[in-house]
């Protein structure tokens, strides 16, 4: 944690008053489960909090930045900015992937590079920062890390994976694309959904995510990888 604390101070001017919050934010459930006797806290609750403040601040930014955009257009843009893949990228940009505590099994299976884990980590860090420093500190951090990339306009050009898949499959005519939830597990505040996508009844791929929409996007992404 000392190296992480140094990085946060040097790069972002952030010094946590309560170091236990930072420790918890960077502790994955797999690590906590492997050390149950130590009663270690993991980051799922902080992730829940971070997701909420992230949605709020990005919504506020888009509302003020684009006074002429319709609600639907702002919602689509927000979903591109805060999608799992984007948040995982921000975690990597900040070097967070080097500091998360994973269980041995999760580490061996490549969890340190998994978008789901790194996206959750970014949100957990925001939750910890909110509790330790307040919403203004979270806003300042996002202005350093996320907003510069949004300002380039790159997210406005991004099509979601479901749209890309639909366009690819329908080049030769209408195709019935169906997304079906095949499994869901986990507590109410941290559910994981598994979704299967079919085209005219043929199974193309499956995906996972913390919501049905995210799982559908992941399934479409995996289908595109198979088809292109």
From TrEMBL:
GO terms for molecular function: glycosyltransferase activity; ribonuclease III activity. Its cofactor is Mg(2+). Mg(2+) binds at residues 47, 120, 123. Pfam families: dsrm (PF00035), Ribonucleas_3_3 (PF14622). Transmembrane segments: none annotated. The keyword Nuclease applies. Keywords: Cytoplasm, Endonuclease, Glycosyltransferase, Hydrolase, Magnesium, Metal-binding, mRNA processing, Nuclease, RNA-binding, rRNA processing, rRNA-binding, Transferase, tRNA processing. The active site is at 51, 123. The keyword Cell inner membrane does not apply. Residues 160-228 form the DRBM domain. It is found in: Cytoplasm. Its EC number is 3.1.26.3. InterPro entries: dsRBD_dom (IPR014720), RNase_III (IPR011907), RNase_III_dom (IPR000999), RNase_III_sf (IPR036389). It catalyses: Endonucleolytic cleavage to 5'-phosphomonoester. Residues 5-134 form the RNase III domain. Gene3D superfamilies: 3.30.160.20, Ribonuclease III domain. Its main location: cytoplasm. PANTHER family: RIBONUCLEASE 3 (PTHR11207:SF0), RIBONUCLEASE III (PTHR11207). Belongs to the ribonuclease III family. Homodimer. Digests double-stranded RNA. Involved in the processing of primary rRNA transcript to yield the immediate precursors to the large and small rRNAs (23S and 16S). Processes some mRNAs, and tRNAs when they are encoded in the rRNA operon. Processes pre-crRNA and tracrRNA of type II CRISPR loci if present in the organism. HAMAP family: RNase_III. This is Ribonuclease 3. It comes from Streptococcus loxodontisalivarius. The lineage of its organism: Bacteria, Bacillati, Bacillota, Bacilli, Lactobacillales. The gene is rnc.
